[in-house]
Amino acid sequence: MITTIPEIKTTLPGPKAKAVIERDAQVVSTSYTRDYPLVMARGEGAAVEDVDGNIFLDCAAGIAVTATGHSHPDVVKAIVEQAQKFLHMSGTDFYYEPQVRLGEELSAIAPLKGPHRSFFGNSGTEANEAALKLAKYYTKRHNVIAFFGAFHGRTMGSLSLTASKITQRKGFGPLVPGTFHAPYPDSYRRPANHTPDSWSAECLRFIEDQLFTHVVSPDEVAAVMVEPIQGEGGYIVAPDSFLHGLRELTRKYGILLIADEVQSGMGRSGKMFAVEHAGVEPDIVTMAKGIASGMPLGVTLARAEVMSWPPGTHASTFGGNPVSCAASLATLKLLRATLVRNAAEVGGHLMAGARELMNKHRLIGDVRGRGLMIGLELVRDRESKERATTERDAVVKECFKRGMLVLGAGRNAVRLSPPLVLTTQQADTALEILDEALTAVEHDARGAHLPPTQD
Ligand code: PLP
């Protein structure tokens, strides 16, 4: 049982971590993006122990995945029990009850009226690929619209919609034809003459006045895919009015609305799905990440009438793996019992604390998010909002040095995406570490381009 979090005992990386990293450099793809040298040995709740015995407070959750914390005993038990029965049978060619039960459970919590059907894959990108194919198949239309800043995955279909970092697209073109992008209503960076709602309306107008007028006929658009809260793009929350407007617009033209809840779903936002905050019902919702506490699983859920493609049109050998389904059923039970509520409560506390840090650290330009999906956008100047990109990277590293795991999001935001089991006390520890890390970075940069802190 890990009792003290965090606890740093060696220099980082320690000797054992260093050895693993050296071996990794010989054999593992160079495309991975490791911000700091964490080599995990085991985890428990919101604690991660590295191979040298250092203990970290986990505010990254394996990129917003381990919803129930690391190795929650109920999830592990469900995995072991299922593994002892059978590991695989392929739910595409055979039947097994855990996949059916998961379909029923997901239908019970879906943010759209039923009846529903679910397609089971292994990851977020696969869930979005399935959604894209389904939308095209159902509508018999071939174009799709997504948003600048979006991240929907890295396989070719999803990547065509992804418009987050250029490194993710560069060198891989041509991508799938018939994909168009519109501006996403970033309230923090809206033009000065706009309110968040009027800026949302302007972004929606772009779709009708520009895209539908000049480049693509709306009756040839199958779907609009949207993250209700942009994740990789910087933890940017779409105003409710934007999601409502998008729903109206898609309905007007017979276009399907796909909510990518891969990162924002499964309780992370303080509701089971982030679209519920706006009360907007999509036609298709995609899920992955937190859905099975770390076991690979992606789900595309749609109205049953939409998901009526015939046998053979889409399938996956491993999709809906029975062990992943068992992990997901245990995860959903925990989410429904306490963890969605905990995400709202502890998330509120963490957000309030992060907002308070703004009084001390001028480097923080904006604090936003919902539940335990919180972004701190760092800027060199609050007036010009110049992006503090190198400072953001430095803050992430300073947090690591002090025993806290966080990740960046977008060009200059720090994201807090801890397991949903985070306690108020752990949230306070996170705020203390963040405070120290920001102080260290501001201290290093003082005399350069950063304004002094106010302490
Ligand atoms: N959609 C969103 C909103 C995501 O945040 C991600 C991953 O970060 C994906 C899709 C892709 O998921 P995966 O990495 O499991 O393919």
In CATH terms, what is the architecture of one domain? 3-Layer(aba) Sandwich
Provide the succession of SSEs: HEEEHHHEHEHEHEEEHEHEEHEEHEEEH
Q: Classify the secondary structure makeup into a structural class.
A: alpha/beta
Measure the end-to-end span.
38 Å
What is the strand and helix layout of this fold?
Elements: H1 15-27, E1 40-44, E2 47-50, E3 55-58, H2 61-64, H3 73-85, H4 97-109, E4 116-121, H5 124-139, E5 143-147, H6 156-161, E6 179-182, H7 196-215, E7 221-226, E8 229-230, E9 236-237, H8 240-252, E10 256-260, H9 275-278, E11 284-287, E12 298-303, H10 322-360, E13 364-370, E14 373-378, H11 389-401, E15 404-405, E16 407-409, E17 413-416, H12 424-445
Parallel strand pairs: 3-15, 5-6, 5-7, 7-10, 10-11
Antiparallel strand pairs: 1-2, 2-3, 4-12, 8-9, 11-12, 13-14, 14-17, 16-17
Helix pairs in contact: 3-10, 4-10, 7-8, 10-12, 11-12
Question: Can you tag this structure with a few keywords?
Answer:
7-stranded mixed beta sheet; alpha/beta; 12 helices; globular; single chain; Aspartate Aminotransferase, domain 2; binds pyridoxal-5'-phosphate; 455 residues; 17 strands; 39% helix; 4-stranded mixed beta sheet; 16% strand
Brief overview:
By secondary structure, this protein is of the alpha/beta class.
Descriptive report:
With 455 residues, the protein is of the alpha/beta class. It has a domain at 86-334: Aspartate Aminotransferase, domain 2, CATH 3.40.640. It has twelve helices and 17 strands. The chain has helices at 15-27, 61-64, 73-85, 97-109, 124-139, 156-161, 196-215, 240-252, 275-278, 322-360, 389-401, 424-445, and strands spanning 40-44, 47-50, 55-58, 116-121, 143-147, 179-182, 221-226, 229-230, 236-237, 256-260, 284-287, 298-303, 364-370, 373-378, 404-405, 407-409, 413-416. A seven-stranded mixed sheet has the order 4-12-11-10-7-5-6, with helices on both faces. Strands 1-2-3-15 form a four-stranded mixed sheet. Helix 4 runs parallel beside helix 10 (322-360), helix 7 packs parallel to helix 8 and helix 10 (322-360) crosses helix 12. The two termini are 38 Å apart. The mean pLDDT is 97. The protein binds pyridoxal-5'-phosphate. The site of pyridoxal-5'-phosphate (PLP) has 15 residues, from helix 5.
